[in-house]
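Lay summary. Proteins are chains of building blocks that fold into shapes, and those shapes determine what they do. In this project we predict the shape from the chain. Here is one chain we studied, written as its sequence of building blocks.
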Amino acid sequence: MALKRGFFLIVGLCSLVLGLLGILLPVLPTVPFILLAAYCFARSSDRLYLWLMNHPWFADALKNWQAQGAIRKSLKRKAYIVSSLSFLVSIAVVPLIWVKVMLACFGTGLIIYLRSIPEIED
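And here is the predicted shape, written in a compact code that computers can read:
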């Protein structure tokens, strides 16, 4: 049992770090990593799970996702704006055309994924 808890703790911590990096880096998706961290912490550490579920940045989105499988409309709008801007800046800065195309494909995929997430009215 300790091995299983340790595994979930390590995966949760790695997911949390990747999710936090995803706030700054356009290629890393923040939400899936934070959701995975919450899932792992629920199975490994009550203290970290409660910290994440009560964190001012993530609590609302996590609770909405947990209860309804959806996110607030305003959060979705912010995700569209921040993702689009970060991908556009990255595309403008990168000199290699194949990287520009790859970033454009990732950005398009992310927008399609965001559109598929159910919304909650604010």
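What the prediction tells us: Residues 1-69 form one domain.
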